[in-house]
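Changelog-adjacent note: as of this version, every example in the card shows the full chain rather than a window. The one below runs 491 residues end to end.
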Amino acid sequence: MASSSESTAAGFEQAGEKLNSPGFEQAGEKLNSPGFEQFGEKLNSPGFEQFGEKLNSPGFEQFGEKLNSTDFEQFGQKLYSTVSQNQNDQNVFLSPASIALAMSMCTVGARQETLNQMLHAFQASTANELIQAAEQVMQVFSAASQDKLVQLKLANRLYAQKAYKLQEDYLKLVQSSFAADIKLADFASEGAEVVRTINAWVEEQTNKLIKDLLSPDDVNSDTRLIIINCIYFKGTWVKQFDEHNTIKQADFHEGKNKISKVNLMYQKNKYAYTENKDLRVQVAHMPYKSENRDTQFVFTVILPNKGVSLSDVESRLKAEPDLMRSLLSHTESAMEELLLYLPKFKMEASFTLNDVLKQIGMQNAFDPNSADFTGIVSESDDAAGLYISKVIHKAFIDVNEKGSEAAAATAVMMLKGCAVRRDRQPTEFKADRSEAAAATAVLMDRCCASVKPEPKPVEFKADRPFLFFIRETEEDLNIFSGRLVSPPSTA
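Full-length structure tokens:
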């Protein structure tokens, strides 16, 4: 089990409970009336009915295009690479999508240099660009929620301190673009009970896969806001493994002459497959059943050749993000008959992501003296402001003969900052851009009429460390990313 991080998963609870707070304002009126109607009335189901109604809004005009790889995907790659580097030679499993959505809900409330740094980490030029990318990700979940053959659920929720006045525009934004609901809590006097409530909700959203996301020590009298994202996935292989073919206690070569035991599933079948001779890896894509043509989910494995170090492969992929995108893309693959061996395993991981997020550029957000989240709470309402004290992520995956089940939860803890106010001078943000051009010539010769022999099956034997991903292929979205170095368990 890897150490330190946060995350959340699946579904929506009704936001229309009695919130009785004088701290929220609606178009100039106090929101101390019961019901929190404007944020809660339509969020009373685990689906995306309300979110689906806004698909014709400007944020979705470009949904037919692929997700902007300079936003969520590059953020996810940088995040995974940094966690992986910090957890050297250990198993890693996390949800880049969960972390990105939780941090996006913080980013849209940031201002000045805090905003610039957070946008830069996402490789986004503006907050609107980031919001549009987030809305496209949300639409993947919305479309999948209608699919009876695969389960993909998401929930976003904010827990705010009672009587703490948040910006009306911010609340409207997270509700409309992130389908988030809002709950009020008293962290100061009921901290332990609030933690129990949050943990119970996260456990419910993740089908009991993510337990005890928060501990009582994670909240105190300075806690003002907790932003949570939860994701849950359950998919069935299009081509299931026969349990009778699973090799019990097979050898797994961890490296450095260390051999562990693992239950190795086996089947002979055709899969989307490619090889990269320069990187010396094999890549196989195993699809999950789906009845929705708009969303297609796959389990992708990047397997280094025998004798090739996984850490060397990861270093290359970190240095060449385009190479990673190429390997994950089906456009580089062809259907090949494989002798496919895949470990049966369960893995869970927990991370505190503060240092990781600082490493990828989000410095000011974690500094009580420098953080500027005046888009969430105004200076006039709280001179001390907010800063991020902790980002927690938990994730779990079960891979077996029938398919995969995975969940993740991310919690962003925001505390009262210092009374020393930051520099209010505007800071210009310029995203580094580069342009490239390429020309490709395809030369096609006339084929001979001779009949080619039937190709032999390719052995794809994941009996050594490998990378794995649960992805949505239509939008090239990595929902979960992992690395199996040592078999954790063989349930």
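Structural remarks: The chain is about 25% helix and 30% strand.
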